[in-house]
Design a protein that fits this description.
56% of the residues lie in helices and 0% in strands. The protein is mostly helical and 79 residues long. The two termini are 29 Å apart.
Length: 79
Amino acid sequence: MYDDRTNLTRQVETDLREFFRDQVFHTVIPRSIRLAEAPSFGKPIISYDVRSRGAESYIQLAKEILAHEQTARDPQSVG
């Protein structure tokens, strides 16, 4: 989970993006209380609080993964 308040997190992100370049997804999952609470209630974040930043980030990541897969299958669909 990404915590943009810390220098270490920002530096790790920079290093990862420089080393792996476009192999790193653009979406980041922010550290949040709601994400930490969800497992205690036995629920995924989407069920626990779909409107939380964490849930929205996971939804965005899923969309990014699907778009990446679509592009990998059909290079003509870039755009």
